[in-house]
């Protein structure tokens, strides 16, 4: 399974950025997204930024990852999936009749 982390740019140059998520910092390539200003939110996979995120999407991804970690550790997690708890599952458009 491949996961992308929603990281926040702390500092950067034309080719890379120092990014932070949950207290961890790492240098990531920004060749796919271009130079980003401090505070920008990036989806990072294998130390490469693959997409620029808005704040709402970055927060939703972060909560989902926190929820997965809580579930794996046997802690309560439902509150971290509040956007999913009160809705019915929907098929993607291409699978609907």
What does this structure look like?
- It is a single chain.
- The protein has helices at 55-72, 82-85; strands at 5-12, 16-21, 24-29, 41-45, 48-53.
- The model has no long low-confidence stretch (mean pLDDT 93).
- The chain is an alpha+beta fold and 97 residues long.
- 23% of the residues lie in helices and 32% in strands.
- The chain has a five-stranded antiparallel β-sheet, with helices on one face.
Topology of this protein?
Elements: E1 5-12, E2 16-21, E3 24-29, E4 41-45, E5 48-53, H1 55-72, H2 82-85
Antiparallel strand pairs: 1-2, 1-4, 2-3, 4-5
Residue fraction in strands: 25-35%
- The best one-word shape is globular
Biggest beta sheet summary: 5 strands, antiparallel
Give the oligomer, counting copies of the same chain as homo and different chains as hetero: single chain
Question: Reading side by side through the largest sheet, how are the strands ordered?
Answer: 3-2-1-4-5
Number of helices: 2
How far is it from the N-terminal to the C-terminal residue, by CA?
A: 30 Å
Helix content: 10-25%
Structural class: alpha+beta
Q: Could you tell me the radius of gyration in angstroms?
A: 16 Å
| Total DSSP E strands | 5
Average pLDDT for all residues: 93
Q: Ranges with pLDDT <50 over ≥5 residues?
A: none
How do the SSEs run, as a string of H and E?
EEEEEHH
What descriptive keywords fit this protein?
97 residues, alpha+beta, five-stranded antiparallel β-sheet, globular
């Amino acid at each position: 399974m491949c996961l992308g982390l929603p990281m926040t740019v702390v500092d950067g140059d034309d080719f890379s950025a120092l990014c932070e998520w949950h207290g961890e910092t790492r240098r990531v390539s920004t060749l796919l997204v271009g130079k980003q200003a401090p505070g920008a939110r990036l989806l990072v996979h294998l130390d490469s930024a693959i997409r620029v995120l808005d704040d709402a999407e970055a927060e939703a991804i972060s909560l989902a990852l926190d929820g997965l970690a809580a579930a794996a550790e046997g802690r309560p997690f439902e509150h971290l999936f509040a956007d999913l708890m009160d809705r019915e599952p929907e098929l993607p458009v291409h699978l609907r009749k």
